[in-house]
Design goal:
With 234 residues, the chain is of the alpha/beta class. The chain contains eight helices and five strands, in the order αααβααβαβαβαβ. The radius of gyration is 17 Å and the shape is globular.
Length: 234
């Protein structure tokens, strides 16, 4: 696989059109569109990673734990030149590298294969520990989950460990579209804070609010941003 060569500068306004190139069954459209603004702000303004630096040990790591809805992720990666826009219409087809769940061996820029709920945040904790053990203090680790994914016990173990471990290079983004079965409304940030995390809750469609929350200082603690979006329709 090779990185794309961009012949056009894409903006946020182009993302719906890029997503519209992806058709077929099992698109998980609401899961994808709920993450669109978070992904764009991260890749446009926060993450220190590019197609040229995606194998650099000093890069930031972004882990899409919410891998069952990757259309927005693929659109943003294409807009930023990680993969060719020409790949998008083949999404989910037999010979396409763009599967219904991302495969890190096929998708340039993807750090993990994901889609099984509850895996991304524990992997992010391990990644942050591994970077610390190697003395790599600059790279930041970001994991994007959904609110329903927090029903998985593996995430609670990761949350409980990361705070006392002081993993201050670890960041989580929880896209809250009110689809969780067990979590109390408005209680997501409190769950993280109880485990020693820094936590902020913002409008998940407000780019400036997202950027401010993503870049807020949190010395000595991991940081979570709960990005609230419109409730998932039945």
């Amino acid at each position: 696989m090779t990185d794309a060569t961009l012949t056009h500068t894409y903006t946020y306004a182009d993302l719906p059109g890029l997503m519209g190139l992806m058709t077929g069954d099992e698109k998980h459209g609401p899961a994808a569109t709920s993450t669109l603004d978070v992904l764009w702000v991260l890749y446009e303004r926060v993450l220190r990673v590019s197609p040229e630096s995606r194998k650099d040990p000093g890069r930031d790591r972004f882990l899409l734990s919410k891998g069952h809805g990757p259309m927005a992720y693929y659109a943003v990666l294409a807009a930023k030149g990680f993969l060719p826009v020409e790949w998008l219409p083949g999404f989910g087809s037999y010979d396409s590298p763009l599967g219904h769940h991302p495969d890190r061996t096929l998708v340039p820029g993807a750090e993990i294969g994901s889609g099984s709920l509850g895996h991304g945040l524990p992997i992010a904790v391990g990644t942050a520990l591994g970077l610390r053990a190697q003395g790599l203090d600059e790279p930041r680790v970001w994991a994007l989950t959904g609110d329903a994914e927090l029903d998985e016990g593996s995430n609670h173990e990761a949350i409980a460990f990361a705070g006392p471990a002081g993993l201050d290079r670890l960041h989580a983004v929880v896209v809250d579209n009110a689809s969780a079965t067990h979590a109390r409304p408005g209680g997501i940030a409190a769950r993280f804070e109880a485990a020693g995390w820094s936590a902020l809750t913002v409008d998940g469609r407000d780019h400036d609010a997202l950027y401010a929350a993503f870049t807020a200082p949190h010395p000595g603690r991991p940081h979570v941003v709960v990005a609230r979006v419109e409730p998932k329709s039945a």
